[in-house]
């Protein structure tokens, strides 16, 4: 099968013919229809502690069609032809980050315990958005109550926007987004978030101007050193800071400032199946819509160049690979 292979840091992804995954008797093979490019994939292709091993095929935000069902799966839970997406977990391993071949490829094997069927109301393109939206849902649930709260989202990438969507869904009083890229600000506005602050200025003052209050909960969705320290400085007493952005470098904070304000710091990782089911249901019911985030749909052949371009700031938000092109 054709796949985009990560050969090592500094080299673009390479389109290669690799072996189609062989499924065990309790696994399912999916022909990939669409797969999102995730910031995590780009991160994992860089030198550093989070780097994936060479020969990794990335891709954990996918939709597709069941083409083979393992012999042991006789209950008829899934059949050939079903349209599905799946949490990227198979028997304690992760799909698309080095352990199991991901969906920057024609086929991907999945675990029936992780598979979520895509109903006819949702197309494959939106099926590939369940993953990033479920990240946002899980993060917001981990904040344990955003209703009536004043929220500051730091970074309007797909995950920051997904957090913003769910904060609004669950009744936040305000959802203010800190972002300086004009393209990302436009995207936030397209999704209905018009309260934007400029991180190069005094965020606390801008936030107070908009909300007449303080950021009771901050979602740090950038993952760069220095941002946590800023969050701690601008947090009100007993404020909550959510660590969502992936930072794999040492970072410095001043504990005394957090201590005197009795702040809470909470990280959130991934999601569980409940989050996927709920996300899917809300998408079908039209109560959340992530589709404006999709700025580009590209072919597998276009992927290596697009992937390289995404390393530096671009106007793109969510880029999705159409494996059927
Ligand atoms: Zn992702």
Provide an overview of this structure.
The structure is a single chain. Strands 3, 4, 5, 8, 9, 16 and 17 form a seven-stranded mixed sheet that branches. The chain folds into two domains: 2-129 and 290-322, Quinone Oxidoreductase, Chain A, domain 1; 132-267, Rossmann fold (3-Layer(aba) Sandwich), CATH 3.40.50. It is α/β, with parallel strands linked by helices. It has helices at 39-44, 124-127, 130-142, 158-169, 182-190, 203-211, 227-234, 255-260, 273-284, 303-309; strands at 2-5, 14-17, 28-36, 62-69, 83-86, 89-90, 93-94, 107-110, 115-117, 150-154, 174-178, 196-197, 217-220, 240-243, 264-267, 294-298, 318-322. Zinc ion is lined by residues 38, 40, 60-61, 131-132.
Which key features would you list for this structure?
6-stranded parallel β-sheet; 17 strands; 7-stranded mixed β-sheet; Rossmann fold; alpha/beta; single chain; 10 helices; 325 residues; binds zinc ion
Which secondary structure elements does this structure contain, and how are they paired or packed?
Blueprint: E1 2-5, E2 14-17, E3 28-36, H1 39-44, E4 62-69, E5 83-86, E6 89-90, E7 93-94, E8 107-110, E9 115-117, H2 124-127, H3 130-142, E10 150-154, H4 158-169, E11 174-178, H5 182-190, E12 196-197, H6 203-211, E13 217-220, H7 227-234, E14 240-243, H8 255-260, E15 264-267, H9 273-284, E16 294-298, H10 303-309, E17 318-322
Parallel strand pairs: 10-11, 10-13, 11-12, 13-14, 14-15, 16-17
Antiparallel strand pairs: 1-2, 3-4, 3-8, 3-17, 4-5, 5-9, 6-7
Bound molecules: zinc ion (ZN).
């Amino acid at each position: 099968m054709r796949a985009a292979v990560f050969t090592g840091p500094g080299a673009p992804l390479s389109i290669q013919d690799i072996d189609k995954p062989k499924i065990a008797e309790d696994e399912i093979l999916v022909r990939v229809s669409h797969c999102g490019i995730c910031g995590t994939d780009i991160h994992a292709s860089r030198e550093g502690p989070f780097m994936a091993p060479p020969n990794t095929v990335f891709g954990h935000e996918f939709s597709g069609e069941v083409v083979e069902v393992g012999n042991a799966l006789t209950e008829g839970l899934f059949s050939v032809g079903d349209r599905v997406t799946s949490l990227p977990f198979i028997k304690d391993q992760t799909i698309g980050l080095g352990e199991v071949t991901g969906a920057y490829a024609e086929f991907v094997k999945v675990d029936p315990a992780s598979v979520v069927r895509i109903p006819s109301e949702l197309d494959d393109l939106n099926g590939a958005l369940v993953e990033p939206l479920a990240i946002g849902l899980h993060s917001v649930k981990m904040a344990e109550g955003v209703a009536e709260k004043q929220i500051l989202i730091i970074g309007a990438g797909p995950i920051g926007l997904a957090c913003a969507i769910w904060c609004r869904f669950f009744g936040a009083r305000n959802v203010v987004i800190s972002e300086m890229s004009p393209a990302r600000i436009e995207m936030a506005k397209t999704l209905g978030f018009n309260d934007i602050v400029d991180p190069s200025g005094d965020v606390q003052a801008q936030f107070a101007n908009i909300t007449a209050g303080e950021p009771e909960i901050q979602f740090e969705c950038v993952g760069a050193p220095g941002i946590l320290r800023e969050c701690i400085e601008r947090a009100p007493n007993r404020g909550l800071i959510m660590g969502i952005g992936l930072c794999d470098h040492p970072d410095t904070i001043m504990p005394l400032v957090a201590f005197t304000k009795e702040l809470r710091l909470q990280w959130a990782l991934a999601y569980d199946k409940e989050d996927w089911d709920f996300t899917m249901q809300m998408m079908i019911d039209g109560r959340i819509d992530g589709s404006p985030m999709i700025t580009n749909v590209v072919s597998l052949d276009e992927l290596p160049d697009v992937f390289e371009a995404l390393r530096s700031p671009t106007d793109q938000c969510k880029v999705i690979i159409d494996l059927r092109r």
